[in-house]
């Protein structure tokens, strides 16, 4: 089955850079990968809002959100987009879902429980000044299509702080998700430094998902096979997976 990995953090925290790096690593491992975010959804809402009730134009072709409920609407649409893709996705595929919010407890409430229960989460923690400087640099020297502008206005009104450092507690308390599905890293550093923690986490996801896929395939191909027998499906893979798990404990 396809696996969902949420990549979260403030604008400028390095999400898009990490997504590009992670997608390369996933493909090097022989898995498929796809990327979804809510920017295009919000941009379409902005363009449709001719009376500027929810949005207003910003510098550098950007936009600001003045009705914060638009953030919630966008996440519901994001789930729909991802679910449409999952219906035809390959079994060995990691779907990267990228967005920023100041309150992840509220953000997760916009999703169905089913959408979250088998997902993994990567949160990039970065100082606001670092985020603003990165945004300034990418606007001055744009390289990628997603080098978008984020204004000081929306930082002051909405992104002045977030609760991403509490992500594992939120997910465990509200959705009973294992903390081993969550990685929180300090991303005020270089990509090279950050990758030392990201790569083991991705490898753990792939290892865990490979075991799950093997269990599902065994059960489908052998209807009399007991799910309880699947702890012995691949001891070698399980041992490697446990080793990786120790590397990413939060």
Note down, in words, how this protein is organized.
The chain has helices spanning about 15-30, 40-50, 70-85, 105-110, 115, 130-140, 150-155, 165-175, 190-220, 235-245; strands at about 5-10, 30-35, 55, 65, 95-100, 120-125, 180-185. It contains ten helices and seven strands. It has a five-stranded parallel sheet with strand order 2-5-1-6-7, with helices on both faces. A two-stranded antiparallel ribbon has the order 3-4. Strand 3 (about 55) and strand 4 form a beta hairpin. Helix content is about 50%, strand content about 15%. It is globular and about 60 Å long. The chain has about 250 residues and is an alpha/beta fold. Helix 9 (about 190-220) packs antiparallel against helix 10 (about 235-245). It has a single domain (about 5-200), classed as Rossmann fold.
């Amino acid at each position: 089955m396809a696996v969902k990995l949420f990549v979260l953090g403030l604008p400028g925290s390095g999400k898009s850079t990490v997504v590009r790096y992670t997608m390369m690593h996933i493909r090097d491992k022989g898995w498929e990968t796809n990327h979804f975010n809510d920017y295009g959804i919000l941009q379409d809402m902005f363009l449709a809002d001719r009376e500027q009730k929810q949005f207003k134009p910003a510098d550098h072709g950007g936009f600001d959100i003045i009705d914060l409920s638009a953030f919630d609407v966008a996440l519901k649409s994001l789930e729909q987009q991802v679910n449409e893709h999952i219906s035809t996705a390959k079994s060995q595929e990691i779907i990267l879902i990228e967005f920023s919010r100041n309150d992840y407890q509220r953000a997760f409430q916009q999703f169905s429980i089913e959408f979250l229960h088998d997902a993994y989460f990567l949160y990039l923690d970065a100082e606001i000044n670092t985020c603003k400087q990165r945004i300034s640099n990418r606007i001055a020297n744009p390289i990628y299509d997603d080098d978008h502008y984020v204004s000081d206005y929306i930082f002051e009104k909405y992104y002045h702080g977030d609760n991403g450092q509490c992500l594992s507690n939120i997910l465990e308390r509200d959705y009973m998700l294992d903390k081993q599905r969550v990685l929180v890293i300090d991303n005020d550093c270089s990509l090279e430094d950050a990758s030392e923690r990201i790569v083991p986490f991705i490898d753990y996801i792939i290892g865990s998902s490979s075991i799950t896929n093997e269990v599902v395939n065994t059960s489908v191909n052998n209807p009399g096979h007991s799910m309880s027998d699947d702890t012995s499906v691949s001891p070698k893979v399980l041992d490697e997976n446990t080793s990786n798990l120790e590397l990413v404990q939060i």
